[in-house]
Amino acid sequence: MHKALRIGLVIVAMLLAPLVVRYLPQNQYLMDVIITTLIYVTLAIGLNVTVGLAGLLDLGYIAFYGLGAYAAAIVMHGGAAQAATAGGPGFWLAIPVALAVACIAGLLIGLPTLRLRGDYLAIVTLAFGQIAKLSENNWDWLTNGPQGMEVAKPVLLGHELRSPYLLYYVIAAIALLTWACVRNLNNSSVGRAWVAIREDEIAAGAMGINVPKMKLLAFMTGAAFAGLAGAFFATKSGFISPPSFDFIETVIILAMVVLGGMGSLPGVILGGVILAVLPELLRSLPGILNLEGTFDITPYRMLIYGGAMVLIMFWRPEGLLPEAHRRRELHGATAESETGTAPG
Amino acid sequence: MRQFIAAILATVTSVSLAVPVLAADAIKIGVASPITGALAKMGADIRNGAELAVQEANARGGVLGKKVELVVGDDKGDPREGITVANKLVQSGVVGVVGHLNSGISIPTSKEVYAPAKVTMISPASTNPELTQRGLKNVFRTIGRDDQQGKDAAEYAMKAGFKTVVVLHNKNAYGQGLAEVFKANFERLGGKVLMLDGIQTGDKDFTPVLTRVRAKGPDLVFFGGEYQDGGLLVGQARKVGLKAPFMGGDGLFDPLFIKLAGKKASEGAIVTFPPFDRAGSFATTYKAKYGSEPGAYSGYSYDAARVLLDAVKRAGKADRAAVMAQVSRTKGFKGVTGTITFNGQGDQPGFKFGIWKVQSGNFELVK
Amino acid sequence: MDWGILGQQILNGLTIGSMYALIALGYTMVYGILQLINFAHGEVFMIGSFLGLGTLALLDAAHVNLPIPLALLVAFVVAMAGAALLGMAIERVAYRPLRASPRLALLITALGLSIVLQNAVMLIVGTEDRTYPEAYTEALIDGFDIGAIHISYQQIFTLGLALVLMTLLTILVQKTRMGKAMRATAQDPMTAGLMGIEANRVIAYTFAIGSALAAAGGILFGLTYSINFFIGYQAGLKAFIAAVLGGIGNIPGAMVGGLVLGVVEALGAGYVSGTWKDVIAFGILVVVLIFRPSGLLGERVAEKV
Asked: Quick check: is B242 in a domain?
C-alpha cells in the first residue's frame, strides 16, 4: 500500500511537471534538459539490464539506440532515404518497428558472443557498435549517409506533437514503461537468473538455469529499451545523423550505470539524472552565480565533468545507491576478496 | 523512488536558478559552435569572428545606443547538444544566432528551436543545400552552398586543362556533398572521373588510399573536406610519390592547411574561397587579437554577426520578428567575404567563389 | 594483381601498425597484471607526443643547435621519461586506491581521467592541429625505391625504432628480475606476493614502461602525421583493439595485433574503400574472437571455477 502510494505520487508528479515548468524562467530550455534526461534515464535502465543485472559488459549499447532511431526514421520516411517517394506511416507505427529492429540486433549480437566472456565480450560489442555507426554513415542509399535524415513529429488525434511540453509525455511514458518492466523482471525468476549468471555462470548453469537463453534475453531486453528511446530521439530532434551514435555515448551511459550503482534501479536512475544534468548545470553556472558575462565556463565544462566522475568513484566505488546485496558483499565480510577482480 | 523524485526536483530547481541576468539595456546575439571536442578549432574560429564584430560594434558606441552582448553556446559538434544549447540561447534573450558549424546541427536547430521562437539563424559554415530549402523564414547563410562551390570549382578545373580527376572526400556532410557536386559538374563538362572514394575524417594515415590514387594517374585530385584531413592528405601524397596537384573547397582555406601539408607539398594546391582582402583591416585586426590568421569560417562568421547587427539597426528595435524581416532584406551589404544579398530562401544566389593557389606558403588569389 | 602496389600497401600498413603496436603494449601489460582496460592510456600517448614536440620546440627556441638525430634522441628521452612519470602518477593517484573495488568502478575512473587529461591538454596547448618542426619531418620525408615500392626514411625510422623498442621490452620481460616479477604477478598476484614480490612496485613499473612505449609511439606519430588534444581517443581505441586482437595480456600478441590491424586497414582502404576499411577491420576482429575467443596469440585459460 505504502509502495503503491509512492509510485502513484511519482506518476502524478511526472504528469504535472510540465505545468509547473511552464511558469519557471527558461522553461523551454529546462523542458529540453528534462526530456534529454529522461532519454538517458531510459538508456541507463536498459543498459543496467545487460551490464548491471546479467553482468555482460556491452560497449556497443548505443548501436541499439541508433538502430532504433534509424528504423523509426526510415519507416516514417516511407522507405530507404534515397528511394522513398511519399511519406510513410506515423510515429506510432514506427515504434514497434524500431523495437523489433533493436531486438533482432540484440539477438544477432548476442548469439555469436555467447561463448565470449568478460572483456572479450566487451570488445566484440564495441566492434559491433562501431560497425553499426560506420554503416549508418556509409550506407547512403538507406540512411542518406552523413547528410542525415529528417524525421516528422508524432501525430495524435490529428494534432502534431511539436511542443516540448507534449513530447515530454511521450518520453515520460517510455521511461515509466521501461522502469516498470525492469522492476518486475528484477523481482521475477528471470531477474534472479540474471543475477545468478552474473555472480557465477557455471554454478548458475549447474542449478538448471538456461544460461545462453537468459544471456540472449538480457541482450534483447536492454536493446529493446534503447530502440524505443532511439525512436523517440529521432522524432524529438526532427533530424538524425550518425555522429549522435558515437562510442562516447555508450561510455557515458555506462558511467551512469556504474556511478549510480550497478544493478540497482534507483541507483541507475540517479546516475542518469546526474550525468545528464551536470553538463547543463555547468553551462548555467555563471548564471546561477550571477556572474554571467564575467567568465566563460565553456572550455572547462568537460574537465569538471570528468573530474566529477573520478571523485564520485573514489567516494563511492560501489555507486551512489548500490544494490542491497552488493553493498553487503563489499562492506560485510572480506572473505570474498575475488569479487573485485575476477572477470565475468 | 524517493530518490527519483528528489533527483528530478533537484534538476528543475537548479537549472531554473540559472535565470539570465536581464540587462535591459543590452542587445544580445548568440554564437553557437563547437567550443570543445574534436572540432574545437573551427568552433573557436567562428566564435572569434563573431566576437570581433561585436567588439567593433561596441567600440563604435553599440547598436541603437545600446551595448551589444555576445552569448556563446558550445554545441560540441553533437546534434543533441546543439538542440539543447539552441534552447538555452533562445531563452537567454538573443535576437539572432550566428551558427552552427555542422549542417547536421543547423538543420534541426533552425526548424525545431529557432523558427518557433522567431530567432534568426545565420550560419557561417553550413553548406548543405537542404538547410535553406525547407521554407523557413529564419534561416540564412553567409557562406555559399555546396552546389555553387562544386560547380565553380569544376568549371575552373576544366578551363585550367585538367582532363582526368580523382575525387576524394572525408565522408562527412560537407565533404561528401561538395565532392559529389564537383564530380557531377566535371562529368557534365566532359571531364573524366577516374575514381571516387572517401576517407574517414579524424584518421591520420591516408597512404593506402593515396597509393591507389597514384596508380590511377590522374591530372588532378579533388578533395571535399576540411583542412585537418586535407592538409595531411596533401602532405602524404608526396610521401607515396603522387605528383598530381590537389584542389579543394573553402574548408581547406586555413593557414593550418599549409602547415599540416608542409610548405613543399602544399605548393600549387588550388582552393576555392571568396576573394577577400587578406591585408584588409579584418584580417590584420583578427591576427593582432587572436595571434593567428583568420580560419576558414572566421570571415563568414564576422560577416554573419555584422549582417545581424545591421538588421537590428534597420529594424530600430531588438525585436526578433522585425530583425528577421530586416535580415531577409539585406542587400548589397559589404562584407569581407563578398557583397551579401539574400534571396527569399536565405541564400546568396550571387555568391562568387574565387580561385586561390598556394604559392610559397601563402594563399594567393589567382582568379 | 599489381604486386608492387600490394607490397606498398603492406608497407603502409606496417608503418601505422607499428605505432598501434607500441600503444597496444601498454594496454596489454596493464591488463595482464590488473585486468584493467586503462582508458587513459590513449591520453598518455597524446601527452607523450606533445612532450616530444615541446622538447624539440624548446631546443630550437634556446638555439641549441644539436644535430637532428641527437635532438630526436633528447626528445625521445624526455617524452618517454615524462610519460613514464605520468603513467606512474595515474596509477598511484587514481587506480591504486580503487584496486579492491569492483572492476567497472576502476574502468569508469579511467574514463573520467581520460576526459580530464584530454581537456586539460586542450586548455594548455589549445585546439589547433600541430606538426613537428619541419626540420625534422622534412629530414625523414624522402626515400628510395625498391622495384615498384617507394620506401620513405620515415617508414624505415618508424619500423626500425618500433622493432628496437619491442626487442628491448622482450629482453626486459624475459631476462631481468623485474621482468620475472612482472610475469609472476600477472600469473598469480597472491602467490607472487608470498614469494616476496612487491606488487605495488611491479605495477608501478608496468605503468611506467607501458607509458614510455606509448610516448615513443606518440613521437613517431607526430613526426609522421599531425597531433592535437583529441588524437588519444582514436589511436587509443585502435590500439586497444589491436591488443585484444593479438590476445590481451600477451606481449607478443600486442605487437602482432598492432601490425595485423595496420595491414588489414591498409588493404581495406587500398582495395575496397577508405570509408569501409574500419568496418572490415572490426569485422575481422569479431570473426577472430568468435573462433579464437582469446585472440590470435592468447592462451586458452582454464575457466575459473
From this structure: yes
The radius of gyration computed from the CA coordinates of chain A, to the nearest angstrom, equals: 21
Average pLDDT over residues B211-217: 91
List, run by run, the mean pLDDT of 10-residue segments along chain C (305 residues): 86 94 92 87 96 94 87 96 96 89 85 92 89 86 82 90 92 91 87 88 93 96 92 90 88 92 94 90 87 77 45
Residue in the structure block whose three cell numbers are 572479450: A120
pLDDT band for A325, please (50, 70, 90 cuts).
Answer: low
Count of H helices and E strands in chain A? Answer: 14, 4
Q: pLDDT tens digit string along B148-172?
A: 899 999 999 999 999 999 999 999 8
Is B313 found in the same domain as B257?
Answer: no
- Residue C305 within a domain: no
Which one of C142, C159, C230 would you mutate to disrupt binding with B, by most B Cβ within 10 Å of its Cβ? C230
Helix, strand, coil tally for chain A in percent (to 5): 75, 0, 25
Which residue carries 522507405 as its cell? Answer: A79
**Whether residue A340 has pLDDT greater than 50:** no
- Highest mean pLDDT pick, A123-127, A154-158, A230-234, C295-299: A230-234
Contact between B46 and B125 (Cβ < 8 Å): yes
Checking if the pLDDT of A143 tops 60, the result is yes
Q: Does B77 touch chain A (CB under 8 A)?
A: yes
Q: How far is CA C102 from the centre of its chain?
A: 26
Which three cell numbers, joined as nine digits, stand for C256?
602482432
Question: B28 to chain A: nearest residue by CA?
Answer: A293
The domain of C264 spans: 3-291
Whether residues B26 and B104 share a domain: the answer is: yes
- The parent domain of residue B64 ranges over 2-143+297-330
Nearest CA distance, B367 vs chain A (angstrom): 31
Pair B205, B237: CB distance under 8 Å: no
Number of domains in chain C: 1
Write down the pLDDT at residue C143: 82
Answer yes or no: are the C-beta atoms of C21 and C252 closer than 8 Å: no
Mean predicted lDDT score pLDDT of chain A:
85
Chain C residues within 8 A of B292 when measuring between CB atoms? 128
Q: Is the peptide bond preceding residue B100 cis, with omega within 30 degrees of 0? A: yes
Q: What is the spatial distance between Cα A117 and Cα A343, in angstroms, rounded to a whole number? A: 8
> What is the domain count for chain B?
2
Let me know if residue C61 belongs to a domain: yes
Could you say which of B4, B90, B173 has the minimum Cβ distance to residue A148?
B173
Same structural domain for residues B228 and B239? yes
Chain A: residue whose CA lies nearest to B11:
A277
* pLDDT of residue B85 exceeding 60: yes
Neighbours of chain A (3+ CB pairs under 8 A): B, C
CA closest to C273 among chain B residues: B197
- Name chain C contacts of B255, Cβ cutoff 8 Å: none
pTM of the model: 0.89
Chains that touch B (3 or more CB pairs under 8 A): A, C
Q: Which residues of A touch B112 (CB under 8 A)?
A: 237-239
In a mutational test of the B interface, the residue from A12, A14, A15, A29 whose CB has the highest number of chain B CBs within 10 Å is A29
What is the C-alpha R_g of chain B? 21
Rounded Cα–Cα distance for residues B336 and B142 (Å): 10
Count CB neighbours of C145 within 10 A. Answer: 10
CATH code of residue C230: 1.10.3470
A295 vs A35 pLDDT, higher one: A35
Domain holding B192: CATH number?
Answer: 3.40.50.2300
Whole-angstrom distance, CA of residue A15 vs CA of residue A168: 9
Cβ-Cβ pairs closer than 8 A, A with C, add up to: 146
Nearest to A304 by CA among A291, A285, A318: A285
Query: Beta strands of chain A (E only): which ranges?
Result: 149-150, 155-156, 159-160, 239-240
